[in-house]
Specification:
By secondary structure, the protein is an alpha+beta fold. It has one domain: 3-Layer(aba) Sandwich (Aminopeptidase), CATH 3.40.630.30. 32% of the residues lie in helices and 36% in strands. It has helices spanning 11-22, 28-32, 64-77, 92-99; strands at 6-9, 36-41, 44-51, 54-61, 83-88, 104-109, 115-120. A 7-stranded mixed β-sheet has the order 1-2-3-4-5-7-6, with helices on both faces. The longest helix is centred in the middle third of the chain and has 14 residues, at 64-77.
Length: 123
């Protein structure tokens, strides 16, 4: 596998990994419609979609170093994104990413009481 590159994969390849992050959310319809796609970034599994210039991390499993590497290189690899958005139950993710040199803003809570975190890509 290529290092530090987003590599497209089929959902079935990363389904077991992503289940920890997706909990009871079933992304099959979103994937089949083409709205979301699965990737590997090194050993990190991701389910991503684009929304109006923002890369939305629907689900992600991996360690903090892999995650911060992904975020640092995502703006270069995905054309047209201005920011990256997470919805997470774990507010500690904000501190974890900041420890790895990222500037993370807390944008509030969504309808399911997940924290909304954003990372500006500097464009």
């Amino acid at each position: 596998m290529q290092r530090n590159k987003l590599v497209p994969v089929e959902y079935e390849q990363v389904k077991a990994q992503l289940q920890l992050a997706l909990v009871d959310y079933d992304p099959v319809a979103e994937i089949q419609s083409g709205d979301a796609r699965c990737y590997l970034f090194n050993d990190t599994a991701l389910l991503l979609r684009l929304e109006d210039g923002e890369l939305v991390v629907v689900g992600l499993t991996g360690d903090a170093v892999e995650t911060s590497l992904f975020l640092n290189s995502a703006a270069l690899q995905v054309k047209g994104i201005q920011s990256i958005r997470f919805h997470t139950r774990r507010i500690a993710l904000k501190r974890l990413l900041e420890r790895h040199g990222l500037t993370v803003e807390q944008r509030g809570l969504d309808r399911e009481d997940y924290y909304i975190l954003g990372v500006n890509c500097g464009r």
